[in-house]
Amino acid sequence: MIQFKNVSMSYETNQVFEDLNLNISRGEVFGLLGPNGAGKSTIMHLLSGFLQASSGTVLLNEKDVVKNSLLSKNNLGFVPQDIALYEDFSAIENLRFFGSLYGLKGNVLTERISELLALIGLESRKNDLIKTYSGGMKRRINIAVALLHNPSVVLMDEPTVGIDPQSRNRIFEIIEKLQQRGTTVVYSTHYMEEVERLCTQIAIIDKGRILAKGTLKELLSTASKTDQIAISFQNRISDFKLKLPVDFHWEEEILLLNCNKNEDLTSVLNALNLIGVKIANIDFLQPNLEQLFMELTGTNLRD
Known about the structure:
The chain has 303 residues and is of the alpha/beta class. The chain has 2 domains: 2-221, Rossmann fold, CATH 3.40.50; 227-286, Alpha-Beta Plaits (2-Layer Sandwich), CATH 3.30.70. Helix content is 35%, strand content 28%. It has helices at 40-48, 69-75, 91-101, 106-120, 135-147, 165-180, 192-198, 216-221, 261-274, 289-297, and strands at 2-11, 14-24, 29-33, 55-60, 63-64, 76-79, 153-157, 184-189, 201-206, 209-214, 227-233, 247-251, 254-259, 279-285. The strands form 3 sheets. It has a 6-stranded mixed beta sheet with strand order 6-7-8-3-9-10, with helices on both faces. Strands 2-1-4-5 form a 4-stranded antiparallel beta sheet, with helices on one face. A 4-stranded antiparallel beta sheet has the order 12-13-11-14. Helix 4 (106-120) crosses helix 5 and helix 5 (135-147) runs parallel beside helix 6 (165-180). The protein is globular, with a radius of gyration of 23 Å.
């Protein structure tokens, strides 16, 4: 349904992509997982037609999105990172305005707005001005705008950044309902737990390159046999200059190790014992996408 064929993209001297190839099938929730600046938004903008590739072809339903821009836009709904609403309009006024741009009117538009307000859970706030909404509520209206014309493909670019848990869960429920209806969703994020929950296919992307692609199960099966171990402590050890014989990093007060538990754990514990710290707990973690990303890039997903 969606194809990127040998797509290269550059801004002056900055090469974003080179010979990018990507296929997304109809009805998938396809996750683009990577840190800020990885190229996720550029993929969205190329697919939506907001940007034109330096070389190569982007296809939607086997048609070039540049040469068939109107047809592509009629089939696409785009949820951008930034809120694209009129703050001094109410929710229903925004939806009526954007619906008219899609050529919707009369009872068809009224019924579609009612359906979408129910979907996003904001029927009771439909007459309130957007400027009175929380960030999460604004994002939900943003999604409703993208769905007005009932597109077959919905692009969601980091739709949960900086929002409250209630809105985040509602957005997850919206995506799950879209999948049930057969809508194709392309979803970009740097939160691995989101793609783990939502996505049927995942592409790990960094610095304009797709490093791995597949189902969650397929991706995790490619992770190395190193173990990820979490150690918590009875006392704070941030004042100690920690030197360990394995790769490690901190998540708040939890020490995360990437090593072979049978070969390396004893030497790690000896090193910790030498500086006099008291261990509260040791957990052996299941492989996850964060670990795979570190193995592929040498950095944390959120670095």
